[in-house]
Amino acid sequence: MRSGVASSGIAGQSGAMSSGAPNVSVVIPVHDEVESLPDLLEAIASTFKTNQLNYEIICVDDGSTDGSAEFLKEEAQKRSDLKAVILRRNYGQTAAMAAGFNCALGDAIVTLDADLQNDPQDIPMLLAKLEEGYDLVSGWRQNRQDGAVKRLLPSRIANWLIRRTTGVHIHDYGCSLKAYRAEVVADMNLYGELHRFIPALAYIEGARITEVPVRHHARRFGRSKYGLWRTFRVLMDLLTILFMKRFLTRPMHVFGLLGLVSMVSGTLIGIYLTWVKLGLGRDIGNRPLLILAVLLLLTGVQLFCFGLLAELLMRTYHESQGRPIYRVREIVTNSAK
Ligand code: UDP
Ligand code: MG
What we know:
It is built from eleven helices and seven strands. It is an alpha/beta fold.
């Protein structure tokens, strides 16, 4: 188990990877950003040097075709503070970040974009917040330099929805500049495009979360890898997260309830129709209500069985990975006992 940031302290050791393991790992997903990389690496190095922090930079090349990978490989051989992780193809920003997390050795992990839109000078501010005892600090781009219709509006709506539904009250989920305690990301499984939901996932696992305003610059080189289509995907991911937050350990409470409601309604309609047929002696063969009753009964049984299967799957999910259904923050005992 890695030592916590608060107990070991992030600050205090100087030099890039000069004395053992780094305290801070900076994880950067890179996809076709070769023009930005030299300035980016320089800006990060100078920030950490002025703040005397022991750090490592992990650049994950996510299937670039513009020479970013070659540049990173060359730089990583020249300098001691850079690790280049080259993925075999383009997997997407979330996967690139997960690859970076897996290689990170620091007690604190900072993520940022490779396109110079985030400002590395903000990193010490985020780390200071971690030292205050938070597990996750998110950047908040107050002066966001992106297009209004294509980016800002969808992002506002998405942020509002995510805030309302997950209960994690930060303003800017989409900001890549974030700092985490290593434990927070260590046991987080990221799929799809869930990186923007890391705060929500961390919150499900009991993390203490805060945000700080950060700078944001317009893109100088290259172009954004995303368009409007992303909004739809974010909404779908939101549904997944919502389900996980509410019902991951008790799927039967959703499916079982729905199934039961459906079965009971179907049965009631069935009883009514039986009474019409047997009691009143009328023909029910041509009544749409009959179809509804059969449909409700069948759907109910299906939902019920689905719930039971989901319960089995959930148990397999937790037990196969040795994932407890809870997270302990700390255990305090009197060692003399
Ligand atoms: N990125 C990546 N893989 C992808 C798409 C993007 O690693 O498939 C990286 C990209 O190089 C950048 C970050 O993710 O460092 C954010 O991408 P972008 O700047 O295009 O997003 P925006 O800032 O427009 O939301
Ligand atoms: Mg960007």
